[in-house]
Write a structure and sequence with these properties.
This protein has 290 residues and is an alpha/beta fold. Helices cover 31% and strands 20% of the residues.
């Protein structure tokens, strides 16, 4: 089932929100937040596996079909956008699902607007070990994502180029297809990346920047069940090894009601490789909140 699309004005920008199904009295709403460089439709396979729930997915600022002001966009700003969307959508007791950057954002939003969420599933969230948060400034100069190919003849060409290669090697074909189909914007007779390499590089390079509310201050304010679903191998240098986990190994213990679930056979791209595993975790959280 294709979602309803609508642009919502939030914090001086317009964000694309995708909506599946209708609100149900017997189940909480679900909201899905994507990783850096991705978009809301990367959740299609997870949402399709759930079936029948009222779901939202969001294109973050600078990504997908949302507005694209010049970067940088701070990690605090991404969290503020999720907070404002939760308020505008009238979320109460929802399940928040965030992958990578999206996990950081929904954690900040839960601390800021606690009534909006009843439980969180953080899928390999970018919440680093505390000692990694030391940057006062950063530069994107030389970052490898700046070398990404920006233009494609078609989504089919992009799909054929990525299938089975690099960080995409274990992605399910349907998820890779969604990533390509909805991750490009037509520009005349060709297509260009919806998330510019500059935006992506700024996000990666500022991961450990000390700005806004400290993410661990937000973690302390989250008093609902939180599941941290992460891959086994932890990164050694943030933003340069996209396959490994950017999640602090002790993160779950930092929440008042956290559970740690380690997946031995997945990379950081858990929703793309095993959307069925994510769907199972979501269903269990939904059943717990009925």
């Amino acid at each position: 089932m294709q979602p309803v699309e609508r642009k919502i004005a939030a914090n001086d920008n317009h964000l694309m929100v995708y909506e599946w199904g209708e609100a149900r009295a017997d189940h909480p709403d679900l909201i899905f937040l994507h990783a850096t460089g991705m978009h809301g439709r990367c959740w299609d396979a997870v949402i399709g596996s759930l079936g029948g729930f009222h779901c939202y997915a969001v294109d973050a600022l600078g990504h997908g079909q949302s507005d694209k002001p010049a970067p940088p966009h701070s990690w605090q700003a991404y969290g503020d956008d999720v907070t404002e969307l939760a308020r505008l959508l009238g979320l109460k007791g929802a399940i928040g699902v965030g992958h990578s950057m999206g996990g950081n954002s929904v954690t900040r939003a839960t601390a800021a607007l606690p009534q909006a969420f009843a439980a969180l599933l953080l899928v390999d969230p970018v919440i680093l070990p505390t000692e990694w948060y030391a940057l006062n400034e950063y530069s994107i100069e030389g970052h490898f994502v700046l070398n990404r190919r920006r233009e494609w003849a078609s989504p089919d060409e992009m799909f054929a180029s990525f299938k089975g290669r690099g960080p995409f090697k274990n992605w399910r074909d349907d998820v890779l297809r969604d990533y390509c189909d909805y991750g490009l914007i037509r520009d005349g007779d060709h297509f260009r990346l919806a998330c510019s390499p500059e935006t992506e590089a700024h996000v990666y390079s500022s991961t450990a920047l000390k700005t806004g509310i400290d993410i661990y201050d937000a973690v302390k304010q989250v008093n609902i069940p939180v599941r941290v679903l992460r891959c086994a191998k932890t990164v050694s240098l943030v933003g340069f090894d996209l396959m490994d986990s950017p999640t602090a190994p002790d993160l779950a213990s930092r929440f008042s009601d956290g559970a740690d679930i380690v997946l031995e056979h997945n990379s950081h791209f858990i929703p793309m490789e095993s959307p069925e595993i994510v769907a199972v975790q979501v269903r269990e959280l939904v059943e717990g909140e009925k």
